[in-house]
Amino acid sequence: MKICDLLLSKVVAYARKIAAWLSDDLQYSINSVNIWINNITDLENSRAPNGNFGIGNAHWVLITGDYVFLGTEYVEEQQVLMTREQLLYVLEQYKAFLEGNYKDPNNPPDPIDVEFIAEGQDAINKYEGLEGAHCIPYDFC
């Protein structure tokens, strides 16, 4: 395997982690996407103004300042750290996808661009280094 193929496969794996959160926790609900858009843009008036959204359907979301830690309870290595702006961008793209006719094979949806800061243990370390970071469930705090 070439190095560029290996790097691409790692990036794809973490993009899949974000996609898994979208499909598993938000599912195919535009209402759920809108709730998360509101959570990201108006954290103070969300259901978790401290940014600790807890565990949903196998994933958890922790927001500290401008950073979002997206974790999974099943695979410790598949954690992602991104900015609130990056997650908002993904949510807006996912909403556009859901609003379209994504089941039409003659009109395939546009790919969703995914950017993040860190993945795996690097994401955990960087998130834990943030002032005011929430306890990551793996830390048994």
How would the blueprint of this fold be written?
Elements: H1 3-26, H2 30-41, E1 52-55, E2 59-64, E3 67-72, E4 80-83, H3 84-99, E5 118-119, H4 120-128
Antiparallel strand pairs: 1-2, 2-3, 3-4, 4-5
Helix pairs in contact: 2-3
Task: Give your account of this protein's structure.
This protein is 43% helix and 16% strand. It has helices spanning 3-26, 30-41, 84-99, 120-128, and strands spanning 52-55, 59-64, 67-72, 80-83, 118-119. It has a five-stranded antiparallel β-sheet.
Number of strands: 5
Strand order of the largest sheet: 1-2-3-4-5
Note poorly predicted spans. 1-11
Gyration radius (Cα, Å) is 15 Å
What key phrases describe this protein's structure?
141 residues; 5-stranded antiparallel β-sheet; 5 strands
At a glance:
By secondary structure, this protein is an alpha+beta fold. 43% of the residues lie in helices and 16% in strands.
